[in-house]
Amino acid sequence: MRQAGRYLPEYRALRAGCPSFLAFCYSPELAAEATLQPIRRFDFDAAILFSDILVVPDALGQEVRFEAGEGPRLRPLEPDLEGLAPSLNPRKVGQVAEAAARARALLSPEKALIGFCGAPWTVASYMIGGGSSPDQQAVRLFAYRHPDAFKALIDRLVEASVAFLMAQVDAGVDVIQIFDSWAGVLPTGELRRWCVEPVGRMLQELRLRAPHVKSIVFPRGVGNRLTAYGDLPCHALGLDTAADAALAARALPSGLTLQGNLDPLALVAGGAALDEAIAQAQENFRDRAWIFNLGHGVVPETPVEHVQKLVEALRGSG
Ligand code: 1CP
């Protein structure tokens, strides 16, 4: 999850040495090191590549900046997509791929390395809106007012995102995850059109080009529309904190692995609240193939000892 490393003092120390977040993402040495830090400390089963979903607009030539304490800022796109390159900057993609190759070489073989990208809808929401917004009004209005231009942007992002993922696959990632963090703001028809269908196209292409690679889709905030994802050719579906895990476990095809969905704030709180949340998750997913995860990113104020305790509790229950 995003910001997974920020609660770790060793990440903050490494990050302090690099003034720009994007420069950090494009440094193969720093990004590989940040990828491995949580594994060294907690011996997790899988590492997630240190990068960001906004590397894709940046590598397509859109200006992207990360302001401290403010989140990302992008120069908003014109409706004609003027200024956007037809394909990703190969040098930038190469640096991310090199980070993945280094991390894979340093990880022990039994640990999985997860590569990722944002889903076209979520990446487009930052490209059109110019930053983060709780209801994503700008991109939703753009999609209603300029459906042809928006379709062209989504198609460009499908292609660029598959290329970005394939560069990571060729560098050795074992699993890819597609983050659709803003899927939940859309009405159901729009959700199918701008989220489910384009992500489905990406998965089909990846299946053809990298049949050995496993895939996880994380459509945050979709509630009972999770069932719209049941037919996608992915291996696992990530559930967010607010998803009804027990209902999802009953409603989704039994061959689909579920991932999730402990509340990141239960991890901050620790104590009885954390014990209860762990027990509840184990109960909810009892009869399913399940990848334990949080329902969203680790928040920076999470005590490191609580993460240690969580790992011990999960391992202890075997
Ligand atoms: O300086 C810093 O440390 C900035 C914090 C940070 C980090 C650590 C950002 C800024 N991105 C990341 C890395 C990141 N992003 C990872 C690597 C794993 C790790 O954290 O170690 C991953 C998987 C992401 C994915 C990502 N980036 C998502 C999808 C997941 C999610 O959280 O929903 C999204 C939406 C982003 C955009 C982003 N990156 C960073 C910020 C502040 C934002 C905007 C978030 C928002 O709109 O609220």
Defining key terms:
single chain; alpha/beta; 49% helix; globular
What does this structure look like?
Helices cover 49% and strands 14% of the residues. The protein contains 13 helices and nine strands. Helix 7 crosses helix 8 (147-170) and helix 12 (271-284) packs parallel to helix 13. Coproporphyrinogen I binds at residues 1-6, 15, 21, 48, 50-54, 66, 71-72, 116, 132, 179, 181, 220, 297.
Would you summarize the structure shown here?
With 318 residues, this protein is an alpha/beta fold. It contains 13 helices and 9 strands. The chain is globular and about 55 Å long.
Largest sheet: 7 strands, parallel
Number of distinct beta strands: 9
Amount of beta strand: 5-15%
Bound small molecules, by name, code or SMILES, are: coproporphyrinogen I
In percent, how helical is the residue content? 40-55%
Residue-averaged pLDDT, rounded? 95
Q: Tell me the distance between the termini.
A: 24 Å
Shape: globular
The radius of gyration computed from the alpha-carbon positions, rounded to a whole number of angstroms, is 19 Å
Number of helices: 13
Order of helices and strands: HHHEHEEHEHHHEHEEHEHHEH
Query: In terms of structural class, how would the helical and strand content be classed?
Result: alpha/beta
User: Order of strands side by side in the largest beta sheet?
Assistant: 1-4-5-6-7-8-9
Low-pLDDT regions: none
